[in-house]
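Title: Prediction job returns without error message
Component: structure pipeline
Severity: low
Priority: P3
Assignee: unassigned

Description:
Job completed but the reporter wants confirmation the result is attached to the right record. Sequence as submitted:
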Amino acid sequence: MRRNKVRAVTSRLLMMSIKLEPRFLDSRTEAAAVEYLRRFRLRNRLSIRRITHKGRRKRSEVQVVADEFGNSMRYKLETGSVLAGYDKYEHLYNMDQTSIYVDMNPKTTITFRGDRDVDVVQ
């Protein structure tokens, strides 16, 4: 059971590293890449731990961040993307009936080895 959880987190790291460096898997097998990331964690004294405390932000702080994100996404989508012009109405989705879960937070995170509590802020 524990091995599966470690594997899931290292797979996320692997996917992030592929986005940052597309040639990461060219000369490695998937098992070699996972082992490389495991050794990176050990070398930098990082460990995969279960989250022990989840803090909450105030609604006003979250609203400011959400408004800024929404405005920036709207600007980018309307000015220079696939959705610019009259074709943008072909890519609309009814979010009321679409089953997408937004608040699916992970149960584990990466933290420095030896930390007593693992706190995250959502």
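Comment from assignee: result matches the submitted record. The first strand starts at residue 46 and ends at 50.
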